[in-house]
Each structure stands twice: as structure tokens, then as C-alpha cells.
Design a protein that fits this description.
By secondary structure, the chain is α/β, with parallel strands linked by helices. It has helices at about 10-25, 50, 60-65, 70-75, 90-95, 115-120, 130-140, 145; strands at about 30-35, 40-45, 80, 100-105, 125. It has a 5-stranded mixed β-sheet. It is built from 8 helices and 5 strands, in the order αββαααβαβαβαα. It starts with 7 loop residues before the first helix and ends in a 6-residue tail after the last helix.
């Protein structure tokens, strides 16, 4: 088990990693996310495309859903933590709700819409965390057909 330094980025990324592992252990894609407001997790989620046969239930979308409806003023003070660079759909949700900051576990295995997010003023922190990179790399190698189903190559 990895122990992170006492940093909020690492603390909340670890929570997203736990969500990714939950998704993997239930037969899905290992991507996790948490939505944080004022140092508290409002919602957490993991990719459930496979488990729920949903074309839209990516980790970020699941975390937003699990956070419930929030006022725009809340979203504008949130940080979204995700184990993988957000795809076009999830980036659209980030922009729609005005989430100003996204901490990304890794963008080596998949580069999402980071340029779009930056161009719209979203602060991005890319950690390229070793565990996130390896977890995704192993999954893509073991289940390329599942990975390639919607955002892979």
C-alpha cells in the first residue's frame, strides 16, 4: 500500500484510486473520481460503463451524480480529482458546472480534453501518479476490447 505525503492533492487522489479499484474489482474499468468542496468529499464514483451497461457512467459523471444537485456557487469552489485525464464528455460536464480545478492522476495512457479545459480557464494539475499509470496500463493490456469500446483507439 502506498502512503502519500500529507497533501490534499495526494489525499483526495488516493480516494479516487480507491474508487478505481472498486470499479476494477466489480468487473469494470479502473477509473475513479471524487468531487471535493472546502476539503470535504461531496461525491465519489467510478467508471460503471460495464457494470450498469451505461454509455455515460464514467467516473467523473458518477462522482457528480453521487454528489447530488448542488448550487452553481458550490461547483465553482470545487476540485475534481480523477485517476485519468477526462474525456470530452466529462470535460464538458466540468465546464458546464464551472468546476475551476481538476487534479489528474495520469495522462500517459489516455490524454483527454486537457487543452479544452485549459483554454476555458480550468486549472489542471497532472500528477502522473505511478499507481494510476500502472493500473490503467495493465487494464488496457488485459482487456483492450473493453477499453476500446468507447474512448480507446
Amino acid at each position: 500500500m502506498i502512503t502519500f505525503p500529507e497533501s490534499n492533492n495526494h489525499k483526495f487522489l488516493w480516494e479516487a484510486i480507491l474508487e478505481a479499484k472498486k470499479g476494477l474489482s466489480s468487473g469494470g474499468i479502473p477509473i475513479g473520481s471524487v468531487l471535493v468542496h472546502n476539503g470535504e468529499i461531496l461525491g465519489r464514483g467510478h467508471n460503471q460503463r460495464e457494470q450498469k451497461k451505461s454509455p455515460v457512467l464514467h467516473a467523473e459523471m458518477d462522482a457528480l451524480e453521487n454528489a447530488g444537485r448542488q448550487a452553481a456557487s458550490v461547483y465553482r469552489k470545487c476540485v475534481l480529482y480523477t485517476t485519468l485525464s477526462p474525456c470530452a464528455m466529462c470535460s464538458g460536464a466540468i465546464l458546464l458546472y464551472g468546476i475551476p480545478k481538476v487534479v489528474i492522476g495520469e495522462n500517459i495512457n489516455f490524454m483527454g480534453e486537457e487543452e479544452l479545459l485549459k483554454s476555458r480557464g480550468v486549472e489542471l494539475i497532472v500528477l502522473n501518479d505511478r499507481e494510476c499509470i500502472e493500473m490503467m496500463k495493465e487494464f488496457v493490456a488485459e482487456k483492450p476490447e473493453l477499453w476500446n469500446e468507447d474512448i480507446g483507439e
